Recover the amino acids of this structure.
């Protein structure tokens, strides 16, 4: 079994072997036999890729799923089982990316409802666990229309491991909503490919782009920097007001806990146009219903929302949006070290701060300014 398949199996087992009441659990397969227990511990330590994972604060995430997002335990666990009709040995999770700019691995469940992202940096997973997790859980319970991505579980290594010590497999993973859910169904229906952008303020100093005009870095590396959206998000005044209200509240929470470098993940779906007759509101609603899945994960609120899809008033597109990657905090050791290095560099070059070394309030200001610039309000 390869590296990606072993990591995927570790994640699936942590989800499917857990008790559904949200209590702290251990793998069901542990034998009462002392010899079997010793062999299991020995095997877990010397495993290079398939690490034994456990859930962090499982009761809190279970409460969010059940009470606020109306995801049943059975439905959630089913997403981490192999798809119906899957061939023998096929994994429940499929790798969709490996070793991105952050060093993360990415997996999708077979039904496309959830993504799993590794959080390899200690500064990031310790920040989420120790500083942001409690405020995040409380905030998401009271803000159903938040644009912060919905995190459904947080997994970590349950004990010492040779694979972790050698850096061969990530020790922490987050399970989150897949904002691209429904794209595969749209492809099968022959609809236009969905477009997506990972947006951050581009006015910051990016060494990969700005030193020697990017000549010292490969194009593949530069392609992993923030995208640029060369268009507008067309919204009604009511839609825009709700969008900015959520952005203001969400980024206020992040700034209060020293988070920077988060991004707005934007999805745009093209609405098939009627031929001939002028569009009506009922036709528009029907078209939106075709594009937006009837069973999206982690609902309420139901459609339309920025998680399921918001239709533009010109009838041309449906938009989704979520705030991602809010794990970089200025008070952690690695960010502090990076800030010192860039400050010294700026004495010599005057390039200015990076998105990971600026202040939380300044990053929030530029982030909100970017979002406002992308929106165009259509008069009704």
């Amino acid at each position: 079994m390869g590296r990606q398949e072993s990591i995927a199996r570790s994640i699936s087992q942590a989800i499917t072997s857990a008790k559904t009441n949200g209590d702290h659990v251990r793998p069901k397969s542990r034998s009462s036999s002392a010899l079997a227990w010793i062999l299991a511990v020995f095997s877990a330590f010397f495993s290079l890729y398939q690490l034994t994972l456990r859930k962090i604060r499982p009761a809190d995430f279970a409460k969010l799923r059940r009470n606020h997002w109306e995801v049943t335990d059975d439905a959630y666990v089913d997403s981490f089982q192999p798809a119906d009709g899957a061939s023998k040995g096929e994994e429940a999770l499929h790798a969709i990316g490996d070793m991105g700019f952050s060093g993360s691995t990415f997996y999708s469940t077979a039904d496309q409802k959830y993504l799993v992202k590794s959080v390899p940096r200690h500064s990031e997973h310790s920040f989420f666990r120790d500083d942001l997790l409690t405020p995040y859980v409380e905030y998401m319970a009271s803000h159903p229309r938040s644009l912060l991505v919905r995190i459904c579980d947080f997994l970590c290594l349950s004990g010492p491991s040779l694979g972790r010590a050698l850096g061969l497999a990530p020790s922490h993973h987050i399970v989150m909503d897949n904002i691209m859910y429904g794209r595969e169904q749209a492809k099968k229906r022959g609809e236009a490919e969905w477009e997506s952008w990972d947006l951050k303020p581009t006015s910051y100093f990016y060494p990969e782009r700005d030193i020697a005009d990017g000549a010292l870095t490969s194009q593949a590396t530069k392609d992993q920097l923030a995208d640029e959206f060369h268009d507008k998000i067309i919204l009604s005044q009511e839609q825009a007001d709700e969008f900015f209200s959520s952005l203001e509240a969400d980024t206020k929470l992040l700034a209060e806990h020293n988070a920077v470098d988060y991004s707005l993940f934007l999805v745009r779906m093209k609405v098939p146009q009627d031929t001939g007759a002028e569009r009506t509101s009922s036709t528009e609603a029907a078209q939106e219903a075709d594009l937006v899945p009837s069973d999206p994960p982690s609902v309420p609120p139901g459609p339309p929302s920025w998680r399921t899809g918001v239709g533009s008033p010109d009838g041309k597109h449906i938009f989704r949006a979520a705030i991602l990657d809010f794990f970089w905090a200025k008070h952690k050791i690695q960010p502090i070290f990076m800030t010192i290095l860039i400050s010294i560099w700026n004495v010599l070059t005057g390039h200015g701060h990076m998105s990971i070394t600026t202040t939380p309030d300044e990053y929030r200001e530029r982030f909100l300014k970017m979002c406002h610039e992308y929106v165009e309000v259509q008069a009704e």
User: Anything to note?
Assistant: The chain has two domains: 3-178, 184-377. The first strand starts at residue 53 and ends at 55. Residues 20-31, 98-102, 275-283 have pLDDT under 50 and may be disordered. The chain has 13 helices and 14 strands.
